[in-house]
UniProtKB/TrEMBL annotation:
Its main location: membrane. This is Mechanosensitive ion channel family protein. Pfam families: MS_channel_2nd. One of its GO terms (biological process) is transmembrane transport. InterPro entries: LSM_dom_sf (IPR010920), MscS_beta-dom_sf (IPR023408), MscS_channel_2nd (IPR006685). Residues 177-243 form the Mechanosensitive ion channel MscS domain. It comes from Streptomyces guryensis. SUPFAM superfamilies: Sm-like ribonucleoproteins (SSF50182). Residues 357-366 have a biased composition (Polar residues). Residues 340-366 are annotated as: Disordered. It is found in: Membrane.
């Protein structure tokens, strides 16, 4: 009877005590979260309740296993398994706690600072710091797990003797990986590119969606994802439209007939922008920037608060202006002449007949 009750009491008591402590801890965190709603720390710490309970349960079972006297012929294997579970759950709990602390710090910083560029920079740094912390904790936990096996401890001594040669070989083999790793750290703390920045790489326009220690993902306007090594951004030029502020100036071109009413177009541009919510109201302008024998080039300058809005303003101005010209001033659009030009009287022949030239045509784009 004792052989049955003892394991039940030890194992059941450990599990029950774990559940009780876990419930009490979660209750305290919930109350703290309700009392201090201005900080998300306590709510984020609740995400670690599962690894926390695993740590408690595995620690209690590991400490009381000898008293249970269960599966004594497999005592070493069971004890090592519990130790591995304890190490793994502890690493998991440490990562969750670190993530809660870092996320709380970032939230407080984002709440106090209204500059989007600085907030994106801090978010990029926080993201990469968490990846570094997770990698370090994972490596330490893996090493601790391996050291629980006697064979691994014996092998460690021989590996330590040849660490110099192995380091050289590993460095040569992982040269690309290491370069990307240091490039990721340089991007995080050098403020070259941040999460949410609008960039142009290899002719593709998009938004930085993810930054890791080895690669960076750009989400294009048509929902494609471009994944590139972070070393690209430290070795090649690229456009960062969010650098130094998100405000932008956009350009709209029209190729029109020489008779186009430029002054009326300026007034119409002002009316279009006043009805466009994406225009930030900073500036606008319209001018003739070039002429050809057939058309003239008219350029409009518009402003917006970011890259998405400047695109909206440009297409809106282009569409409404062309429609207005077509409906109110159709003569201003490029056209093809199919009749002969009327020449001045000085170029008429003595008999009064007009000197005819070859037909000329004019073409252009709207």
């Amino acid at each position: 009877m004792e052989n049955v009750l003892r394991p039940l009491i030890v194992i059941g008591g450990s599990v029950l005590l774990t559940l009780l402590i876990g419930w009490a801890s979660d209750l305290l965190l919930r109350k703290a979260d309700e009392r201090h709603g201005e900080t998300p720390l306590w709510g984020l710490l609740r995400r670690g309740r599962i690894p926390y309970q695993l740590v408690l349960c595995s620690a209690m079972l590991r400490g009381s296993y000898d008293e249970a006297r269960l599966l004594q012929e497999h005592e070493v294997g069971v004890g090592r398994t519990l130790t591995l579970v304890l190490i793994g759950s502890t690493a998991w709990l440490v990562i969750r706690i670190a993530a809660a602390v870092v996320e709380t710090s970032y939230s407080r910083y984002a709440r106090l600072h209204r500059d989007p560029a600085r907030v994106r920079r801090v978010r990029t740094q926080v993201s990469l710091i968490m990846r570094v912390v997770a990698a370090i904790v994972g490596v330490v936990a893996s090493a601790a797990m391996l050291l629980t096996f006697p064979a691994m401890r014996a092998a460690g001594a021989s590996l330590l003797a040849s660490a110099g040669i192995l380091g050289i070989v590993a460095g040569v083999a992982a040269q690309s990986t290491l370069s990307n790793l240091f490039a990721g750290l340089q991007i995080a703390f050098g403020d070259m590119v941040r999460l949410g920045d609008t960039v142009v790489v290899d002719g593709e326009w998009g938004t930085v969606e993810e930054i890791t220690l080895t690669f960076l993902t750009v989400r294009t306007w048509d929902e494609r994802r471009i994944t590139m090594p972070v070393s690209y951004f430290t070795s090649k030029p690229f456009e960062n439209w969010s650098r130094g502020g998100s405000q932008m100036t956009g350009i709209v071109y029209w190729h029109l007939d020489h008779s186009a009413p430029v002054e009326l177009m300026r007034e119409k541009l002002r009316d279009i922008l006043r009805e466009c919510p994406a225009w930030d109201g900073r500036d606008y302008g319209l001018a003739v920037t070039d002429t050809t024998p057939n058309t003239m080039q008219v350029r409009a300058l518009v402003t917006a608060k970011d890259a998405d809005d400047i695109w909206t303003v440009r297409v809106t101005v282009r569409e409404h202006m062309v429609r207005w010209l077509y409906e109110q001033h159709p003569y201003a659009l490029p056209r093809v002449n199919t009749s002969d030009a009327a020449l001045p009287s000085s170029r008429r022949s003595p008999d009064g007949a007009a000197i005819r030239n070859h037909q000329s045509s004019r073409t252009g784009r709207g």
